[in-house]
Amino acid sequence: MNKEEWKNYKRYGIEHLWECENNGWISALYDSKVLSLLRNIPIIIKKQFIKYHKLRFKIIQKPVIPVLEYVVTTKCTMNCKNCNTLVPYFTNDTHIKAIKFETFKKDLDTLLKSVDYIQLFGFVGGEPLLNDDLPQMVEYACKQRKIKHVFIATNCTIIPNEKLLKALKHKKIGIQISNYTHVKNIKGGITVKHYEVKDLLQKNNIKISNPHEATNSNNWQTMPKIYPDYQDVDEVIKNYNCCSGRFCYMLSDGLILQCCTSVYMVRNLKLTETVKEEIVDIRNAQNSKELTKNIIKFLSKPYSQFCHYCHFVDMKYGLPCGEQVEEEVNA
Ligand SMILES: C[S@@+](CC[C@H](N)C(=O)[O-])C[C@H]1O[C@@H](n2cnc3c(N)ncnc32)[C@H](O)[C@@H]1O
Ligand code: SF4
Q1: Which domain does 218 fall in, by range?
Q2: Which residues line ligand 2 (CB under 6 A)?
Q3: What does the pLDDT read at residue 214?
Q4: Of 161, 169, 228, 243, most Cβ neighbours within 10 A?
Q5: If pLDDT is split at 50, 70 and 90, which confidence band does 36 have?
């Protein structure tokens, strides 16, 4: 690594680790009482934290990924108009139907060889509980020394079965349970069972967090208009720095991507060469050393090329979560 690369990795890789540690959504999935108390004295802790991670990187020479979400399917039981993964706007051809355990295992084994560790590893969709191999995947992820915490984000339309419950009873696990109980017009007569899921998880001593609790399920925003473009870089950086997409890298069908919205872009839009260059293809890396290098480069960027496609116009915030599209857009 040359001087410039080290400078960028320090600024955008290591500093970002600290930002993620202090992001409420992330830490809610694994924080202990002691940790949350320590976070109240951030200046002292931050210095030590950065120092420790610089030293650690110098010794191990592999990056830490703060948050990585694995897409097990883009299919969903709901059809939310403002879904940040744009699920209703995929077509039958562009959906990821259901990733098989063997594929997942191969991806994870490949990835873990090339990184120091992953602080928070998530299973997301669409609705991840639609994937029958989820229990096996969860069990496998929890066994990995290089994965510190594991989460699943669910819309609570499916009650976890015995097999999944067994896998979820692990100290690394946190479940993010969305609260869409007010949504009554879901296609196919599907209903939200938020309280049943919550009860079941609590009875089994499984850690939960509800991202909608503080706002009484009124914390959604409209999505930016998405189309291929090259916008002014200053504008793009400004948007990137305020975007929640900075906090959740994705692993989607073998590709490491910036955010959940870029999962939609990769599968549904024509990408420019500049955007393609940012993507890390873990299934086609020549060896683990090359993959390590590519991941470091990915983590060292000041903003994402995908942001050029996101146009923040007429944005609305504080909307009720999970409003459904009137009719299915792409059957
Ligand atoms: C894409 S969902 C996937 C998991 C699951 N299907 C669900 O809805 O909980 C992941 C998270 O993103 C949130 N989300 C989706 N669209 C959003 C939006 N437009 N504004 C704010 N949060 C959003 C959901 O509420 C959920 O907590
Ligand atoms: S936000 Fe809605 S449509 Fe999108 S994945 Fe979650 S439940 Fe499905």
Answers
A1: 64-311
A2: 76, 78-80, 83, 85, 87, 125-127, 155, 322
A3: 86
A4: 243
A5: low
